[in-house]
Write a structure and sequence with these properties.
41% helix, 24% strand, 5 strands, alpha/beta, globular
Length: 155
């Protein structure tokens, strides 16, 4: 199963990008034995209309066995263990692509999302898109460590 992170705006060089790379590299290594392919990152740039058009093209390309998850403060909150279990269930049910969508300052309302998306909340607070990417990457790595029973997640 491949995880796709589709996010509005580009990550600029800096500490957030370094953390993102670190956690995605850890996810890639830890997830390989669990059936997770290296993550793919798609950045939406330009106008809101361009964002929506590019998102639609990406989702159409991934359409086969796709689950779309939008990061949304009003979405469902999971524990790290619950998130790992959700990923495992999708993987075991044959889902081939997970697309996590992260909006910019205006949210995801202008992206023309499909009706059947899952909504995931990283918490009741709102985070900048750069930090949301890092938090998602860390939780993906943590999920693989939970599924592999490694000591990173110590609960």
């Amino acid at each position: 199963m491949r995880v796709h992170v589709i996010a509005v705006n580009r990550m600029r060089p800096g500490p957030e990008l370094e953390l993102l790379k670190r956690y995605f590299e850890r996810f890639k290594r830890a997830g390989a034995s669990l059936g997770f392919l290296p993550p793919a990152i798609h950045e939406l740039t330009g106008t809101s209309a361009a964002h929506a058009a590019r998102l639609k093209r990406i989702l159409n390309r991934l359409e086969s066995s796709l689950v779309v998850i939008v990061l949304d403060e009003r979405g469902k909150q999971y524990t790290s263990r619950g998130f790992a279990i959700m990923l495992r269930k999708w993987r075991e049910s044959g889902v081939r692509n997970l697309a996590f969508i992260i909006g910019g300052a205006g949210g995801t309302g202008m992206l023309g999302l499909p009706a059947d998306v899952h909504r995931l909340s990283l918490g009741k607070m709102v985070f900048p898109h750069m930090l949301s990417r890092v938090l998602l990457a860390e939780q993906l790595y943590r999920a693989t460590s939970i599924l592999a029973n490694t000591p990173y997640h110590r609960q």
